[in-house]
Amino acid sequence: MSLQRFISNAISAWMKDGPDSDIVLSSRIRLARNIDQYKFPTISSNEESQTVLNLFESAYASREFNNIGKLELIKMSEMQPIQKRVLVEKHLISPNLTENAPYGGCLISENEEVSIMINEEDHVRIQCLFPGFQLKEALEVANQLDDWIEQDVDYAFDEQRGYLTSCPTNVGTGLRASVMMHLPALVLTQKINRIIPAINQLGLVVRGIYGEGSEAIGNLFQISNQITLGKSEKDIIEDLVSVVQQLITQERNTREELYEVSKTQLEDRVYRSFGTLAYSRIIESNETAKCLSDVRLGIDLGIITDISRNILNELMILTQPGFLQQYYGGPLRPEERDIRRAALIRERLELEMRRNKPMEDDEA
Protein backbone atom coordinates (compact mmCIF):
# COMPACT_ATOMS: atom_id res chain seq x y z
CA MET A 1 0.00 0.00 0.00
CA SER A 2 1.45 3.39 -1.01
CA LEU A 3 1.70 6.18 1.53
CA GLN A 4 -0.75 8.31 -0.43
CA ARG A 5 -3.30 5.48 -0.53
CA PHE A 6 -2.74 4.76 3.16
CA ILE A 7 -3.45 8.39 4.04
CA SER A 8 -6.67 8.44 2.02
CA ASN A 9 -7.83 5.37 3.93
CA ALA A 10 -6.61 6.48 7.33
CA ILE A 11 -7.94 10.01 7.56
CA SER A 12 -11.43 10.54 8.94
CA ALA A 13 -13.68 13.46 8.01
CA TRP A 14 -13.26 15.00 11.47
CA MET A 15 -9.54 15.56 10.81
CA LYS A 16 -10.25 18.04 8.02
CA ASP A 17 -10.87 21.78 8.31
CA GLY A 18 -14.07 23.07 9.91
CA PRO A 19 -15.30 26.25 11.62
CA ASP A 20 -12.60 27.80 13.86
CA SER A 21 -10.28 24.90 13.07
CA ASP A 22 -7.21 27.01 13.78
CA ILE A 23 -8.08 26.42 17.45
CA VAL A 24 -10.78 23.70 17.54
CA LEU A 25 -9.79 20.45 15.86
CA SER A 26 -13.06 18.60 16.46
CA SER A 27 -16.42 18.60 18.22
CA ARG A 28 -17.85 15.44 19.72
CA ILE A 29 -21.26 14.47 21.05
CA ARG A 30 -21.73 11.17 22.89
CA LEU A 31 -25.05 9.82 24.14
CA ALA A 32 -25.06 6.94 26.64
CA ARG A 33 -28.08 4.62 26.54
CA ASN A 34 -29.13 1.20 27.85
CA ILE A 35 -31.83 -1.20 26.72
CA ASP A 36 -34.57 -1.61 29.29
CA GLN A 37 -35.02 -5.38 29.30
CA TYR A 38 -31.33 -6.31 29.64
CA LYS A 39 -28.82 -6.04 32.48
CA PHE A 40 -26.26 -3.29 31.98
CA PRO A 41 -22.95 -4.46 30.41
CA THR A 42 -21.01 -4.06 33.66
CA ILE A 43 -23.03 -6.90 35.26
CA SER A 44 -24.52 -8.77 32.30
CA SER A 45 -23.69 -12.36 31.39
CA ASN A 46 -21.81 -13.29 28.24
CA GLU A 47 -25.05 -14.65 26.79
CA GLU A 48 -26.91 -11.38 27.39
CA SER A 49 -24.08 -9.31 25.91
CA GLN A 50 -24.02 -11.54 22.84
CA THR A 51 -27.79 -11.13 22.49
CA VAL A 52 -27.48 -7.34 22.50
CA LEU A 53 -24.69 -7.46 19.92
CA ASN A 54 -26.74 -9.79 17.72
CA LEU A 55 -29.72 -7.43 18.02
CA PHE A 56 -27.73 -4.49 16.67
CA GLU A 57 -26.10 -6.58 13.98
CA SER A 58 -29.43 -7.76 12.61
CA ALA A 59 -31.18 -4.39 12.98
CA TYR A 60 -28.56 -1.87 11.84
CA ALA A 61 -25.54 -3.45 10.14
CA SER A 62 -25.34 -2.35 6.48
CA ARG A 63 -28.38 -0.08 6.89
CA GLU A 64 -28.24 3.51 5.72
CA PHE A 65 -29.29 6.46 7.83
CA ASN A 66 -30.22 9.74 6.11
CA ASN A 67 -27.13 11.36 4.56
CA ILE A 68 -24.70 9.58 6.87
CA GLY A 69 -24.50 6.56 4.62
CA LYS A 70 -24.22 2.88 5.42
CA LEU A 71 -23.32 1.70 8.92
CA GLU A 72 -20.88 -1.20 9.07
CA LEU A 73 -20.52 -3.39 12.16
CA ILE A 74 -17.05 -4.15 13.49
CA LYS A 75 -16.84 -6.84 16.19
CA MET A 76 -14.07 -6.57 18.76
CA SER A 77 -13.71 -10.37 18.89
CA GLU A 78 -12.73 -10.43 15.21
CA MET A 79 -10.05 -7.72 15.39
CA GLN A 80 -6.32 -7.90 16.02
CA PRO A 81 -4.85 -5.75 18.83
CA ILE A 82 -3.19 -3.37 16.36
CA GLN A 83 -6.47 -2.89 14.48
CA LYS A 84 -8.26 -2.03 17.72
CA ARG A 85 -5.54 0.44 18.61
CA VAL A 86 -5.93 2.17 15.25
CA LEU A 87 -9.64 2.73 15.88
CA VAL A 88 -8.82 4.18 19.31
CA GLU A 89 -6.22 6.49 17.77
CA LYS A 90 -8.80 7.70 15.27
CA HIS A 91 -11.16 8.36 18.20
CA LEU A 92 -13.80 6.04 16.73
CA ILE A 93 -13.92 3.76 19.76
CA SER A 94 -12.85 4.04 23.39
CA PRO A 95 -9.95 2.14 24.99
CA ASN A 96 -12.53 0.63 27.34
CA LEU A 97 -14.32 -1.08 24.45
CA THR A 98 -11.12 -2.81 23.35
CA GLU A 99 -10.06 -3.89 26.83
CA ASN A 100 -13.26 -4.87 28.60
CA ALA A 101 -15.79 -5.87 25.96
CA PRO A 102 -15.16 -9.26 24.29
CA TYR A 103 -18.78 -9.11 23.13
CA GLY A 104 -18.48 -5.48 22.06
CA GLY A 105 -18.85 -3.98 18.64
CA CYS A 106 -19.11 -0.70 16.83
CA LEU A 107 -21.29 0.53 13.97
CA ILE A 108 -19.26 3.04 11.95
CA SER A 109 -20.50 5.28 9.14
CA GLU A 110 -18.78 5.46 5.77
CA ASN A 111 -17.32 8.91 6.46
CA GLU A 112 -16.47 7.94 10.06
CA GLU A 113 -18.28 10.94 11.54
CA VAL A 114 -20.64 8.55 13.34
CA SER A 115 -19.76 5.57 15.50
CA ILE A 116 -22.15 3.63 17.73
CA MET A 117 -20.36 1.55 20.36
CA ILE A 118 -22.19 -1.53 21.60
CA ASN A 119 -21.60 -3.18 24.98
CA GLU A 120 -19.01 -0.73 26.17
CA GLU A 121 -19.82 0.61 29.66
CA ASP A 122 -23.41 0.99 28.42
CA HIS A 123 -25.35 -0.99 25.82
CA VAL A 124 -25.27 1.92 23.37
CA ARG A 125 -22.93 4.86 23.05
CA ILE A 126 -23.76 7.07 20.09
CA GLN A 127 -20.87 9.27 19.00
CA CYS A 128 -20.85 12.04 16.41
CA LEU A 129 -17.44 13.56 15.67
CA PHE A 130 -17.33 16.65 13.44
CA PRO A 131 -14.41 18.82 12.25
CA GLY A 132 -13.91 22.21 13.88
CA PHE A 133 -16.38 23.90 16.20
CA GLN A 134 -19.72 22.22 15.39
CA LEU A 135 -21.20 21.08 18.69
CA LYS A 136 -24.78 22.01 17.84
CA GLU A 137 -24.60 20.31 14.45
CA ALA A 138 -23.15 17.15 16.01
CA LEU A 139 -25.89 17.13 18.66
CA GLU A 140 -28.60 17.39 16.01
CA VAL A 141 -27.27 14.32 14.20
CA ALA A 142 -26.79 12.40 17.46
CA ASN A 143 -30.40 13.08 18.48
CA GLN A 144 -31.63 11.91 15.08
CA LEU A 145 -29.69 8.65 15.50
CA ASP A 146 -31.00 8.32 19.04
CA ASP A 147 -34.61 8.60 17.83
CA TRP A 148 -33.89 6.16 15.00
CA ILE A 149 -32.62 3.47 17.37
CA GLU A 150 -35.43 4.07 19.86
CA GLN A 151 -37.94 3.10 17.19
CA ASP A 152 -36.78 -0.51 17.68
CA VAL A 153 -35.75 -0.69 21.36
CA ASP A 154 -36.96 0.63 24.70
CA TYR A 155 -34.36 2.59 26.62
CA ALA A 156 -33.84 2.32 30.38
CA PHE A 157 -35.44 5.60 31.49
CA ASP A 158 -36.75 7.06 34.74
CA GLU A 159 -39.20 9.98 34.77
CA GLN A 160 -37.28 11.75 37.53
CA ARG A 161 -33.69 10.74 36.82
CA GLY A 162 -33.74 10.55 33.03
CA TYR A 163 -31.68 7.98 31.09
CA LEU A 164 -30.17 5.31 33.36
CA THR A 165 -26.50 4.47 32.84
CA SER A 166 -23.85 2.23 34.36
CA CYS A 167 -21.91 5.19 35.73
CA PRO A 168 -23.89 7.65 37.90
CA THR A 169 -22.07 10.60 36.33
CA ASN A 170 -23.87 9.91 33.04
CA VAL A 171 -27.39 9.59 34.47
CA GLY A 172 -29.85 12.21 33.21
CA THR A 173 -29.33 13.31 29.64
CA GLY A 174 -26.54 10.76 29.13
CA LEU A 175 -24.84 13.52 27.15
CA ARG A 176 -21.11 14.06 27.03
CA ALA A 177 -20.15 16.97 24.78
CA SER A 178 -16.52 17.82 24.13
CA VAL A 179 -14.23 19.82 21.90
CA MET A 180 -10.58 19.12 21.13
CA MET A 181 -8.61 22.38 21.22
CA HIS A 182 -5.06 23.36 20.25
CA LEU A 183 -3.90 25.91 22.84
CA PRO A 184 -0.12 26.40 22.40
CA ALA A 185 -0.05 30.13 23.19
CA LEU A 186 -1.93 29.71 26.46
CA VAL A 187 0.50 26.92 27.40
CA LEU A 188 3.63 28.91 26.41
CA THR A 189 2.52 31.89 28.50
CA GLN A 190 1.36 29.59 31.34
CA LYS A 191 -2.07 31.22 31.28
CA ILE A 192 -3.52 27.74 30.95
CA ASN A 193 -2.57 27.09 34.60
CA ARG A 194 -5.09 29.72 35.71
CA ILE A 195 -7.70 28.85 33.12
CA ILE A 196 -8.10 25.14 33.88
CA PRO A 197 -9.17 25.59 37.53
CA ALA A 198 -11.63 28.29 36.43
CA ILE A 199 -13.13 25.94 33.84
CA ASN A 200 -13.48 23.18 36.44
CA GLN A 201 -15.45 25.52 38.70
CA LEU A 202 -17.99 25.96 35.89
CA GLY A 203 -18.86 22.26 35.88
CA LEU A 204 -16.60 21.45 32.94
CA VAL A 205 -13.48 19.30 32.84
CA VAL A 206 -10.20 19.52 30.92
CA ARG A 207 -8.59 16.26 29.79
CA GLY A 208 -6.06 14.87 27.33
CA ILE A 209 -6.78 13.91 23.74
CA TYR A 210 -8.11 10.42 24.60
CA GLY A 211 -10.41 11.64 27.37
CA GLU A 212 -10.46 10.49 30.98
CA GLY A 213 -7.09 9.40 32.32
CA SER A 214 -5.08 10.62 29.32
CA GLU A 215 -2.49 13.37 29.30
CA ALA A 216 -2.52 16.54 27.22
CA ILE A 217 0.22 16.10 24.62
CA GLY A 218 1.03 18.48 21.80
CA ASN A 219 -0.89 21.27 23.57
CA LEU A 220 -4.16 19.47 22.74
CA PHE A 221 -6.93 19.52 25.32
CA GLN A 222 -10.45 18.10 25.50
CA ILE A 223 -12.99 20.39 27.16
CA SER A 224 -16.21 18.61 28.16
CA ASN A 225 -19.20 18.77 30.47
CA GLN A 226 -19.20 16.97 33.82
CA ILE A 227 -22.87 17.39 34.73
CA THR A 228 -25.55 15.34 32.94
CA LEU A 229 -28.27 15.32 35.60
CA GLY A 230 -30.49 18.33 36.31
CA LYS A 231 -29.57 20.23 33.14
CA SER A 232 -31.11 20.04 29.69
CA GLU A 233 -29.10 19.16 26.61
CA LYS A 234 -29.56 22.74 25.40
CA ASP A 235 -28.15 24.21 28.61
CA ILE A 236 -25.19 21.80 28.63
CA ILE A 237 -24.28 22.74 25.06
CA GLU A 238 -24.76 26.47 25.58
CA ASP A 239 -22.52 26.45 28.67
CA LEU A 240 -19.78 24.57 26.82
CA VAL A 241 -20.09 26.76 23.70
CA SER A 242 -19.73 29.89 25.84
CA VAL A 243 -16.52 28.64 27.47
CA VAL A 244 -15.03 27.43 24.18
CA GLN A 245 -15.74 30.78 22.51
CA GLN A 246 -13.88 32.53 25.33
CA LEU A 247 -10.95 30.13 25.00
CA ILE A 248 -10.82 30.71 21.24
CA THR A 249 -10.65 34.48 21.81
CA GLN A 250 -8.00 34.18 24.52
CA GLU A 251 -5.83 31.82 22.46
CA ARG A 252 -5.99 34.03 19.35
CA ASN A 253 -5.22 37.19 21.32
CA THR A 254 -2.33 35.50 23.12
CA ARG A 255 -0.89 34.26 19.81
CA GLU A 256 -0.93 37.80 18.43
CA GLU A 257 0.71 39.16 21.59
CA LEU A 258 3.42 36.49 21.48
CA TYR A 259 4.19 37.14 17.84
CA GLU A 260 4.34 40.88 18.40
CA VAL A 261 6.57 40.73 21.49
CA SER A 262 8.74 37.68 20.68
CA LYS A 263 8.60 37.33 16.89
CA THR A 264 12.17 36.12 16.36
CA GLN A 265 12.06 33.63 19.23
CA LEU A 266 8.71 32.26 18.07
CA GLU A 267 9.88 31.91 14.47
CA ASP A 268 13.02 30.15 15.70
CA ARG A 269 10.94 27.71 17.71
CA VAL A 270 8.64 26.99 14.75
CA TYR A 271 11.47 26.45 12.24
CA ARG A 272 13.51 24.31 14.65
CA SER A 273 10.50 22.06 15.14
CA PHE A 274 9.90 21.92 11.39
CA GLY A 275 13.54 20.97 10.86
CA THR A 276 13.24 18.22 13.44
CA LEU A 277 10.22 16.76 11.66
CA ALA A 278 11.73 17.14 8.19
CA TYR A 279 15.18 15.70 8.89
CA SER A 280 15.13 13.49 12.01
CA ARG A 281 16.03 9.83 11.66
CA ILE A 282 14.70 8.91 15.11
CA ILE A 283 11.82 10.64 16.87
CA GLU A 284 9.65 9.68 19.85
CA SER A 285 5.90 10.24 19.99
CA ASN A 286 6.02 13.02 22.60
CA GLU A 287 8.64 14.96 20.65
CA THR A 288 6.57 14.46 17.51
CA ALA A 289 3.49 15.91 19.21
CA LYS A 290 5.46 18.91 20.48
CA CYS A 291 6.96 19.63 17.04
CA LEU A 292 3.61 19.20 15.26
CA SER A 293 2.09 21.69 17.70
CA ASP A 294 4.84 24.24 17.03
CA VAL A 295 4.57 23.88 13.25
CA ARG A 296 0.78 24.08 13.37
CA LEU A 297 1.10 27.33 15.32
CA GLY A 298 3.54 28.56 12.67
CA ILE A 299 1.05 27.78 9.91
CA ASP A 300 -1.78 29.54 11.74
CA LEU A 301 0.40 32.64 12.25
CA GLY A 302 1.55 32.69 8.62
CA ILE A 303 5.17 31.88 9.49
CA ILE A 304 5.02 28.72 7.35
CA THR A 305 3.00 29.07 4.15
CA ASP A 306 3.80 26.03 2.00
CA ILE A 307 2.45 23.30 4.32
CA SER A 308 -1.25 22.58 4.82
CA ARG A 309 -2.65 22.39 8.34
CA ASN A 310 -4.44 19.20 7.25
CA ILE A 311 -1.07 17.51 6.74
CA LEU A 312 -0.35 17.98 10.43
CA ASN A 313 -3.78 16.59 11.32
CA GLU A 314 -2.87 13.52 9.31
CA LEU A 315 0.55 13.18 10.91
CA MET A 316 -0.95 13.56 14.37
CA ILE A 317 -2.80 10.28 13.74
CA LEU A 318 -0.43 8.52 11.35
CA THR A 319 2.48 8.69 13.80
CA GLN A 320 0.59 6.97 16.63
CA PRO A 321 1.88 3.48 17.56
CA GLY A 322 -1.12 1.58 16.16
CA PHE A 323 -1.04 3.29 12.77
CA LEU A 324 2.71 2.89 12.47
CA GLN A 325 2.50 -0.82 13.11
CA GLN A 326 -0.42 -1.27 10.72
CA TYR A 327 1.38 0.67 7.99
CA TYR A 328 4.62 -1.28 8.38
CA GLY A 329 2.85 -4.62 8.58
CA GLY A 330 3.22 -5.85 12.15
CA PRO A 331 4.41 -5.30 15.71
CA LEU A 332 7.38 -2.98 16.21
CA ARG A 333 9.59 -2.47 19.25
CA PRO A 334 9.55 1.09 20.65
CA GLU A 335 12.96 1.92 19.15
CA GLU A 336 11.83 0.56 15.77
CA ARG A 337 8.68 2.71 15.95
CA ASP A 338 10.80 5.80 16.56
CA ILE A 339 12.85 5.11 13.43
CA ARG A 340 9.81 4.28 11.29
CA ARG A 341 7.93 7.32 12.64
CA ALA A 342 10.74 9.64 11.53
CA ALA A 343 10.83 8.03 8.08
CA LEU A 344 7.07 8.34 7.62
CA ILE A 345 7.10 12.03 8.62
CA ARG A 346 9.95 12.80 6.22
CA GLU A 347 8.21 10.98 3.39
CA ARG A 348 4.91 12.77 4.03
CA LEU A 349 6.51 16.22 4.16
CA GLU A 350 8.56 15.50 1.03
CA LEU A 351 5.36 14.46 -0.77
CA GLU A 352 3.73 17.74 0.24
CA MET A 353 6.78 19.73 -0.94
CA ARG A 354 6.72 17.99 -4.32
CA ARG A 355 3.04 18.83 -4.71
CA ASN A 356 3.71 22.50 -4.05
CA LYS A 357 6.86 22.78 -6.19
CA PRO A 358 5.14 22.82 -9.64
CA MET A 359 2.85 25.61 -8.44
CA GLU A 360 5.87 27.66 -7.37
CA ASP A 361 7.61 27.02 -10.71
CA ASP A 362 4.52 28.10 -12.65
CA GLU A 363 4.26 31.33 -10.68
CA ALA A 364 7.93 32.05 -11.35
UniProtKB/TrEMBL annotation:
Domain Phosphagen kinase C-terminal: 23-254
Top-rank EC class of the record's enzyme: transferase
Activity regulation: Appears to be allosterically activated by the binding of pArg-containing polypeptides to the pArg-binding pocket localized in the C-terminal domain of McsB.
Keywords recorded for this protein, A-Z: Allosteric enzyme, ATP-binding, Kinase, Nucleotide-binding, Transferase
Tagged with keyword Ribonucleoprotein: no
Keyword Kinase: yes
PROSITE patterns: PHOSPHAGEN_KINASE, PHOSPHAGEN_KINASE_C
Chain span(s) of sequence motif RDXXRA motif of the pArg binding pocket involved in allosteric regulation: 337-342
Binding residues annotated for ATP, in chain numbering: 26-30, 91, 125, 176-180, 207-212
One Gene Ontology MF term: protein arginine kinase activity
Catalyses which reaction(s): L-arginyl-[protein] + ATP = N(omega)-phospho-L-arginyl-[protein] + ADP + H(+)
UniProt similarity note: Belongs to the ATP:guanido phosphotransferase family.
Stated role: Catalyzes the specific phosphorylation of arginine residues in a large number of proteins. Is part of the bacterial stress response system. Protein arginine phosphorylation has a physiologically important role and is involved in the regulation of many critical cellular processes, such as protein homeostasis, motility, competence, and stringent and stress responses, by regulating gene expression and protein activity.
Stored PANTHER family: ARGININE KINASE 1-RELATED, ARGININE OR CREATINE KINASE
Protein name: Protein-arginine kinase
Organism: Metabacillus malikii
Gene: mcsB
